[in-house]
Amino acid sequence: MSNRPLIRRPVAAVATALLAVAALVAGCTIDRGSGASARSAGPVAEATLAPADNAENVNPTAPVSVTISAGTIDQIALTNAAGKQVSGALAPDKRSYTITEPLGYDATYTWSGTAVGTDGKPIPIDGSFHTLAPKNTVPATLNIADNQEVGIAAPIILQFKTSVRNKAAVEKAVTITTDPPTEGAWAWFPDDNGSRLHWRPRNYWAPGTAVHVSAQLYGLDLGAGNYGYSDLTSEFRIGRSQIVQADAPSHRMRVVRDGQPMFDFAVSYGEGNEPRNVTRSGVHVVTEKYQDFMMSNPPFYTNVRERWAVRISNNGEFIHANPESLSAQGSANVTNGCINLSPGDAQTYFPTALYGDPVEVTGTSIPLSAADGDLYDWTIDWNTWASMTALRGTPSAVVSATPVPPQPAGGR
After folding, report:
1. pLDDT score, position 394
2. For the chain, how are helix, strand and coil distributed in percent, rounded to 5?
3. What is the pLDDT of residue 43?
4. Considering the entire predicted model, what is its pTM?
5. Number of domain units in the chain
6. Which strand (E) or helix (H) includes residue 72?
7. Cα–Cα distances in Å, from 266 out to 248, 330, 340, 342?
8. Which residue among 78, 89, 272, 371 sits deepest, i.e. has the most Cβ atoms within 10 Å of its Cβ?
9. Which domain does 104 fall in, by range?
10. What is the pLDDT of residues 38-59, one digit of tens each?
11. Residues 251, 221: one domain?
12. CATH assignment at residue 87
């Protein structure tokens, strides 16, 4: 108990004092000064992780981000198990952070950082997730390299190391962009266990066409536990139009460049007395050429050196020099299936041949087919070709123009 004397004030005085206190309190509620104690507390910041904390079997190409509500990011990093930081981008408003490179397969990634809420208080950003572990990663290759110039019959070939079950997903992941626009379609070739996908135009390419191929295969589910090994791109150009017109009954071979006759050679085609030496009829495609090439056709001959050899199918058909058939060239067909020219004519033709040039063979008894190798694309009529896509009933023609430059692949 206080020892101070009790003082009795008049009621009016007490009321006046209470009013003064009330006025003081009211004055605090409308004062907009800068004192921190005068501010009202804001909402607490909250971090949302994508994928969620402790997520498993995350696709390495799936979107990965952190989003902050009621606050902004102060510092942030996503690192792999080795401590390497993954590249990312902070939004201008600092409310989100997005990873900008693909992740690795079967790997753990960890978030670390802080955010500051509108209440001025920091919160931690932490969490982790694990990416999927494929049964196998499957490499693939494209047949045409960057900056290559090819002939007007060149197909685009995507060759996988093993068969692909999820064929529709692959077609959706590959984009063909051309300038000028070019109608074409995909076809899966049944003779290669479903591991080979071709794209060809409906008609021969227009000379000078610019082509860009983008295959986003990394992280793609190919089926049966297999996933794509890496993305692929290629940017190339169609060269001049050069068509070889190879008419067996005439014993001649004409080369037409941009619609104009260029050469007319006396040649000899396959003798045709048995199936093995019939030059196949149909549109062949130039694939390789060699100034010197050792040819074998057991038991008839082995390791015979031939000059100026241009391969036109995988069944052993070449256009090449052969002085031994010189007396028959222009008058009789006596070869084992190749198209024989004189050494001088073969050397003249050789430098003009380009990968993808069409060689149109006519007038023989056996057509080119799947039995003759992997480039019989032009022997398939268009309606049949269009039915060989895994995306039946959906548009497969190219309608875009102006090639898009290839994008660099990210780290792992």
Report:
1. 67
2. 15, 40, 45
3. 83
4. 0.82
5. 3
6. strand 71-80
7. 11, 4, 9, 8
8. 78
9. 46-131
10. 345 678 999 999 999 999 999 9
11. no
12. 2.60.40.3780
